[in-house]
Amino acid sequence: MKLKLSKPIIENILSVVTNFTEKKDDSQITSHIYIEANENIIIKATDNEFGVIYIDNSSEVIQTGKTTINGKKFYEIIKALNDDIIEFEEENNIATISQNKSMYKLPTFDATSFPEFPDIKNFKKIDINSIEFIDGLKKTYLAIDNNNPKYELNGALIDVKENLNIVSTDTKRLAIYSIKNQTTDKASIIIPKKAISEIKKLFIDNFDLFINDTHLIIKSDNITFFTQLINGSFPNYERIIPTEYKHIVKINKSSFLKAIKQINIISFEVKLTFNQNKLHLESISDETFEAQTDIEIESEVTDFKFAVNSKFILDFLSVIDDEIIDMCLNEENIPFTLKSKNFQTIIMPLTI
After folding, report:
1. Can you list the domains of the chain with their CATH numbers?
2. CA 199, 205, 210, 213: dihedral to nearest 10 degrees?
3. Among 42, 146, 153, 293, which one is most buried in terms of CB atoms within 10 A?
4. Closest to 230 in 3D by CA, of 218, 215, 241, 219
5. Each residue of 97-136: pLDDT tens digit?
6. Spatial contact of 281 and 263, defined as CB atoms under 8 Å apart
């Protein structure tokens, strides 16, 4: 195999694919990336749980072939070289990377030993709005739990029914993003949080989504991504969503955000008191220090109060675009809901 690589392009590709390699044990073939050269250059990486295929159609293939090379070392070498053409050659299980007077040699593994990727032919395509799907993953991502013993909570549910709902929870809040369903198919899968983190980086729009019982594949023109799914039963989130509310309060996002940040200087536990057209915020967790402030709201609610971990409100405000949000209330001691268009977060209040 012999290639002429564009330094900026190959560096960008390696910055992506090395996230999918095994980094703790260089003896594993999953610490390597797979390179195959035909009409284009195909680069693969996987840690067996998830993986990526990247197609480079701008570099020059002088001699076809396939091999593997340690992803981390290859990336470090490419970053150290100048913005000029890089020559890559593999022969007798040795890869040579050279540019002008610089030259590196790295051992390679047998490319036929590289793990097989899922075959997309065995998958069912789910028709979705790509932009909305990525937006939904971004908005629900912060509510996904970390290292919960209930493994199914360490990911986001993709629930395809009348709507396609993207759902996540850390047991203290429930985030739901609804997309109008574009297919008659029904499906229910759980995508790991780690995989969602990579999906958000890799894709913006114009991709296809495929699923089977164990994997999800996302495919665009130059990138194909796969991940194993979480095997488990997500909680019945629909029974938690209130069907009606006693009060719906409209709040200016910027004013609310500023007020919460002011209270957070003293405490992340905040008491909210609603009086007609006014919301009073005050700190509650520290007896020595005190913070309080008021903002104007559109509401007829009087003497309604509860406390909350302000992080949950800040997470919601950080991912929405609307300047006016709805805070939906029933009773003081039961969960309340924050809404913005097709995204909502149901939050458990604190016990005062």
Report:
1. 2-113 (3.10.150.10), 125-216+228-239 (3.10.150.10), 247-347 (3.10.150.10)
2. 40
3. 153
4. 215
5. 999 999 999 999 999 999 999 999 989 999 889 999 999 9
6. yes
